[in-house]
Fold each of these.
Amino acid sequence: MPCTVVVCGFFGDTGKGKVISYLAIEDRIDVAARGGVGPNAGHTVVFKGKKYVMRMLPSAFVNERCRLLIGPGVLIDPSVFLSEVELVNARGRAGLDPQCAIIEEAHKEADRRGHLKKRIGSTGSGCGPCNADRALRMVRVARDIPELKPFLADVPLEVNKAIDEGKNVLLEGTQGTFLSLWHGTYPYVTSKDVTASAICSDVGVGPTKVDDVIVVFKAYVTRVGPGPLPGELSEEEARRRGWFEIASVTGRKRRSAPFNFELAKRAVMLNGATQIALTKIDVLYPECRGATDFDELPRGAKEFVARVERETGVPVSLIGTGPEAHEIIDRRDELGLRR
Ligand code: IMP
Ligand code: MG
């Protein structure tokens, strides 16, 4: 802190929601702003025994004092946004930029058929067609929608002001590095760049204002939809290892593969990572479940963490040991990383 960007280093679904919900409380985040594509994302937060899948609002909602913003680069589905505002009681603290583009029914229909559905395996949430219309300058934006009027805010101004005042600011990325339209496994990617630089641009924060970039990796790799996945396991083997997952937004099966050090190195490079959050280590080493101290980890898990650090050259500062926000090992003090 004060300005930290959190992004995923693989293909999405690595546990950004979990990591961010922890940081929101632990670091007393004042302002959280979401960048990324739009409601094609699903960030899972488990807090006080309740599970939330957030598609629009920042995962930092668990800190009731945190301002919850959505940057102008992000696409808004008004019905998803408004229902999440009610769900987490965020009427007084949620804001979105007047220039956020609006997903229409026609965008969703176009996204649920043809090339995008069949070849790319899109989520069907309308994001690709909406970004296409946005590039053609044919979309409506948030300031055109009466129901969104109470939430309009100058997001870049608010976020930069908070940074200048020394407040704790967190920028939340969506999707994953290798789903980036520029840097991912094209054409099996999403409809824009989603690396840390893009997340900053979505929110309106310049590169000199960022203090830390946390790249989140899961202890194994998953991806939904088609596209390359080196070392992919059969569904049977994935189930045997406990790696089999169902996508939180689309309900599709996630494909899985072992942790990929080559991809991790490249993600660290593309995002300028200063720290790594490694999640779901309890899935590889069940003895880790719920641990909050590094010393509680079995030797194999410690060796895995050390190898991730050695190969990427970046410290693993946070280690997820279960789905709840507080089930995490925070090594930032021990590693001298806390600001
Ligand atoms: P679209 O972003 O809906 O156009 O989908 C394009 C590709 O990105 C598909 O393979 C989706 O499954 C994938 N994708 C988009 N958003 C996410 C996400 O948040 N998590 C994981 N995969 C995603
Ligand atoms: Mg997800």
Amino acid sequence: MIRKDGIPVSGGIAICEAFVLEMEGFRVTKRVIGDEEVATEIGRFHAAQGAARREYESNRDNLSRELGAEFGNIFQAYMMLADDPRLNRDVERFITENRYNAEYAVSLSINEYVKTLHRLNSNYIAARVDDFREIEKRLLRHLLGGTRERLANLTKPVIVVAPDLTPSETANLKREFVFGFATEHGGKSGHTAILASGLEIPAVVGVGSFLQDVVGGDIVIIDGDVGTVIIRPDEETLEAYRRKSELYSSVHSQLQSYLVDKEAITTDGYQIQLNANIELPDEVEICKKRGADGIGLFRTEFLYMTTGLENFPSEEIHFNEYKRVLECMSPKPVTIRTFDFGSDKAYGQSTDERNPALGLRSIRLAFKLMDVFRAQLRAALRASIYGKLRIMFPMITSIFELRQVKMVLYDIMEELKYEGQKIADGIEIGMMIEVPSTCVLIDQFAKEVDFFSIGTNDLVQYTLAVDRDNREVTHLFRSEDPAVLRLLQRVITVADQYGRPISLCGQMSSDPVYTMLLIGLGLREFSCMPSSLLKIKRVCRGVSTKQCVDLLNEVMKLDHSNDILIKLKKTYTDTFLLDRV
Ligand code: PEP
Ligand code: MG
């Protein structure tokens, strides 16, 4: 049994067989195949060879065009090596005679050539070794890359373990088969983590190097509440986690049946609006089930990730998805945030940006991809008649930028009216507060928008200069940092002075440890992960605003985030013992 600790990002216990997703580094596992698999493995090898050949061919043609035939011929040589009859013969022999899987057969064959070359001991030969390694890598990438494709075709429950999962891979996970996942990389506010929680898949990220300890088919336990991953558990541990999992489901169903229809009202009568965040339209059902008061954040960029990144989804696709969500939630509000690509949410075109979080992301990209942006806005406005739509812009940094984006929106409204299309009256327009500059100028922004939503995931990242998705600095990502709390205090107070509704939709709103503090700061609207709605409601209903303000006053005297967190956790556990559900 091996136990590893990582960052808990999506609660719950999962116990299942591991599905190991490889990436670079290509850890090749030796597998002895059955007679019936021989033809398949040979087929996989030839398919990988074909794919490698095609890639080399196109590299050759491109390079010949750009730099001349002598450069292109480098790839001609690779093409020939990849197709070498001896390589064919050796790999096929290892598969048919030794019954090895294709990856292992390729690695073994190339290792033998490399060993022979080394024995010859010459500089010329050393360069050939690199050539063989290149072929090996290319073939393995095609063979093991298939593992990633197989992820989309799972037919039985698994726990996915991987170096990393991209947000789009996570968005495409089949919930019925992926019971949980654990990754070596990642941080607690990255989008992979957010998606896991939205999809209610128990998940632990940032575990560090552990893939060498797990083989596909091993039993793995994921404890998404504390961040533990257990590989090949012993009987006693397995039994303990089975019991914990049952307890988890029973607390969950108690909360569901007791709280779902109740309002989030503090004991002194203040109404709290509890909205939900969604990434994918399908999640809207779960939000309704959990009694959400509306959708406070629809991260629409995930629509682009599921429909394929090369072709942006058409206006019609957007329209149908928005209509579905609006109709489902009507008459409750749905806040569509325009696409927020870039940084960790790739949008198809790879960029060489050194600091993608500070680069061409979000609203900046919208100005660059104007046609794509206009199509999205047209779709949202057309869908507005099917419910209560609010439109929100992400990552605004300056008044000028906000005015520019509003001009685009008004222009599209005119365009649609001119075409005779119907648009709802009084659509509210809002912006995210996620860059410190907007906190500084909050009074000016308040004159220009109908509502605000605080994105603490980015606000913390930009205020404390801590990458939200990097496990090396995850300990520095502190939503309770005194500097962050002062910014929150300022924006909530000023928004209130201007009569502008303000919500908080970053991950901080989904953690019940922060709920009292946020109410104390004056927040009356939360937008959280659907899986957290009931836990947050439980806190709202169990406290008075006075208790929350008292806590805030104590916390504001502390100057170290560790002390603040200890205080918040203690207050939460003292006030909300599990048995008081
Ligand atoms: C945030 O930054 O807090 C936020 C809600 O937006 P996202 O997580 O999608 O960047
Ligand atoms: Mg953000």
